[in-house]
Design brief:
Structural class: mainly alpha
Number of helices: 7
Shape: elongated
Number of strands: 3
Order of helices and strands: HEEEHHHHHH
Length: 177
Amino acid sequence: MTPAFRGLTRRELLASGAMAGASLVVGSGFVAHASEEWALEAKGVAPHTAATLIQMARDIYPHDRLPDRHYGIAIKGHDDKAAADPAYKAQLEEGVAGLDMLAEGQGARDYLGLGWEADRVALLKQIEKTAFFQGIRGDLVVSLYNQKDVWPVFGYEGASYEQGGYLERGFDDIAWL
């Protein structure tokens, strides 16, 4: 979270070109990514919470070949649910606040301020039994991997039923056997 960007609208931030060199940038009501040119409007949770959830999602299911926008799409459902359910919003905000406190104990300003993935994962291991962590982790299995844009990265061609099944479509084309 870069303080210089606070108070800017998404349009003003993108027009300024000020995001060069930044990764996740938190603005007034949104989270944006510099090099990938995408933004997520946070309606249910604070933008810092949304950015933290995106980083948390990447740390739970790390895939270097997946851009952050896919993690943002996966987290969007949590933001939507938080907008409709105050108790869920409180759970997310408190969970992120707890992560930030743990990060401060490591000398960082917040979870996003921890530069090393191993340090963030160590914090996640400390909270892995909480309802907050389990809710995010469990939902990501579906919300991340059920995106059709993600499938080619993993070599998944999609459902085979509509195409007559796998039998005539190379189910036995294993070259390493």
